[in-house]
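S.,

Sequence below, as promised.
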Amino acid sequence: MLNGDLTTAPKIAGGEASHFVLTRFNVRSFYHASEPTDAWLRERLRLFRQYCLPALADQSSAQFLWLVFVDDQSPQWFRQEIEKDARGRFETVFVSGAFTSKTVSKAVAARTDAPYILTTRVDNDDAVARDFVQTIQNCFQRQDFEFINLVNGAQYADGRVYLRPYTKNPFLSLVEAAGTAAPETVFVEHHYRVDERGPVRNIRTAHPMWLQVIHGGNVLNEIVGLRVPGHRIARFFNCGLDFNDSFVDLFTEVSKGTARILWRIARKPSRVTELWRATFAKGISRN
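The prediction came back faster than expected:
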C-alpha cells in the first residue's frame, strides 16, 4: 500500500513522455530488512541533504517528478524532516511493508497517462551532475523498452575524487512504452544485470554525470576509479564537496589507483571488456 498525496508528473517531448527520478530512503528491502536506528536515519539524512538533494534541486531541466520512497513506520521526527525537505522539490511516497518493483510500478502508473515513461534511479547518498536529467531526456527516441546508461561517472571519498567509467552503474534509466499493464520501471531488475532483461544503450558524455559518495554506511561500494584533482568535476555538481588535493596526496593516490585497477583486471580479466565498452560507448546527440 502507498500513502501520500498524488502529484502528476510533467510531460516532455511535446507531451509524449513523463520522466520520474526514483530514490529509496529507508524502505524495507533485501539489504535493509530490519528497523533502522535513529542514528542511521540522522546520518543518512545528513548525506541526503549534503549531496543528493541539492544536486537534484539544481537540474537544468525541471521537467521531471522526483519520488522519494520512505517506510510508513518511520519515526515521527523523521517524517517531519523528510516532508520539510520535500516542499517544492520531491514527493514523499510512504510505503507499507516491503519495497519491491511493484511498489514503484504502482506509484509511477498513478501519476502519469503519457504514452511513454522514463524512470531513473538515484540513491539517497549520491549526487548527479546539473545536466543529468536533461541528458537522459535527450536519449528519448520513443523506445518501446530500452535501458539508458550514462557510463561516465566518479567516486568521492574523504575529499578525493576518482573517475569511474562503468556500464553497470546504479544511475540507470529505463525508457518504456506505456501499455495496458503497469509500467515495469527501472527497478524491474538489479542494475548490474539489466542486460539480461532488455537492451541497454551505453552513452558516453563529456564529463562525469554521476557521483558515488563512498562512506562508512555503504553496503556494496568500493573505490575502483582513477584519482584526479577535484576541479575536474567540481563545476558539474552542485553539492557540498571539499577536496584534499595536495601534490603528494595526488601523486600517491594516482600510483595506488593505477596499481589497484591493474590488480582488479588481473583478478578478473573480463573487466577489460567492461572498460572497453565504457571507453568506446557512443556519445550523446543533442536534440
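The first helix runs from residue 38 to 57.

Coffee later?
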